[in-house]
Write a structure and sequence with these properties.
Largest sheet: 4 strands, antiparallel
Order of helices and strands: EEHEHHEEEHEHEE
Number of strands: 9
Strand content: 25-35%
CATH topology: Aminopeptidase
CATH architecture: 3-Layer(aba) Sandwich
Distance between the termini: 34 Å
CATH superfamily: Gcn5-related N-acetyltransferase (GNAT)
Strand order of the largest sheet: 3-4-5-6
Number of helices: 5
Amino acid sequence: MNLSMNSVLLGLHGSLVYGGIMGVRAALEMVSNELWSNERVSIRTINTEADLIYVAYECQLEDWQKELVNPAWFSIGRAYLFKEDNYPCIICNEELKPIGFINLCKWLGEGDAFSFSYYIDKNYQGKGYGKSAAEVAIQILKAADSKKPIKLATERENKKAQGLYTSLGFKLLNELDGDDLVFAL
């Protein structure tokens, strides 16, 4: 793409914007590769049919968890329809083996914010991978725009997610996303 000087502006937060607005995808693609991992996990884009099969079929949750998160196909479908605002990825462990799914995205509720939704395969839960993946997601989103908040929604019944978000520094807001609680960092 050939951009004229008039169509490329330096945003208030120091990020490169196109036509005054930068989509989540464009902002994330500018984040340095080394910020997409820590000592436990790495996050990478879905690049192959095998990746798609993993996130849509092979990555499994416990039955009780399926009521608490959107399935991967929903996030991938949303990414297809709204490409600039969604960035579906695979979470890999330290051996680069896929262990989960994450969608880094634009917050769809009140206010301009980033968000992410994710889950870890049931065979890898309880080992700290979920917290490590959330830490990497926060690192990536803050590198994309350090001034933009990150908002996460969770079911009222999902006490485990609420505890995790609080341990990561998120605060419970006085707002709802439908009937879900909203946390912000």
